[in-house]
Amino acid sequence: MARPSLREKIVDSGVRTLHERGFASAGVREITAEAGVPQGCFTNHFRSKEAFGIAVLDRYHERTQAIMDETLRDQRLPPVARLRAYFDTIMEWLDAAGWRYGCLVGNLSLEMPEHSELLREHLVQVCRSLTASFAEAIRAGQTSGEIRSDLDADDAATFLLASWEGAMMRMKVDRSPLPLEQFKRVIFTMLLIP
């Protein structure tokens, strides 16, 4: 198997570093040290820290999409079970991380919009993609009769993502799964057909 390129090592390490330390507080020296590459490699592969942030966001989004493929898009499961499987899978990762890091999309959203229009626009695209995936599952649930049909699927998906991100922020503060468990109890009660 081929060895990963230095760029790939920096991006992979960047996902961990930005999750743990945040975008603003992670310096190029720290990023390259975590990746185990010379500092000069950073500028060889990224024209700016902002370009690096976008590459890291894309890698994180690829991983999230892979989880969505295994859960939200698993046609063998009923739509509500797909939604539950997605949140349960993410919660397993968050548990392994000690309820400390939350979602990189949410973290960057809080940290960057005022400082980087390019990164902000990229975050908008990622959030649209995530919302579309939730809307697809909600529409399937409405068609199957599991999810209330009086809700606009796009509005419900936007609310779902915003609520999930908020629950993860609270989880980070509390270092507890309780906000995520409360999110699931409330959201599924609101979405499901009574």
TrEMBL record:
<dbReference type="InterPro" id="IPR001647">
    <property type="entry name" value="HTH_TetR"/>
</dbReference>
<dbReference type="InterPro" id="IPR036271">
    <property type="entry name" value="Tet_transcr_reg_TetR-rel_C_sf"/>
</dbReference>
<dbReference type="InterPro" id="IPR011075">
    <property type="entry name" value="TetR_C"/>
</dbReference>
<dbReference type="Pfam" id="PF00440">
    <property type="entry name" value="TetR_N"/>
</dbReference>
<protein>
    <submittedName>
        <fullName>TetR/AcrR family transcriptional repressor of nem operon</fullName>
    </submittedName>
</protein>
<feature type="domain" description="HTH tetR-type">
    <location>
        <begin position="4"/>
        <end position="64"/>
    </location>
</feature>
<keyword id="KW-0805">Transcription regulation</keyword>
<dbReference type="Pfam" id="PF16925">
    <property type="entry name" value="TetR_C_13"/>
</dbReference>
<keyword id="KW-0238">DNA-binding</keyword>
<feature type="DNA-binding region" description="H-T-H motif">
    <location>
        <begin position="27"/>
        <end position="46"/>
    </location>
</feature>
<keyword id="KW-0804">Transcription</keyword>
<dbReference type="InterPro" id="IPR009057">
    <property type="entry name" value="Homeodomain-like_sf"/>
</dbReference>
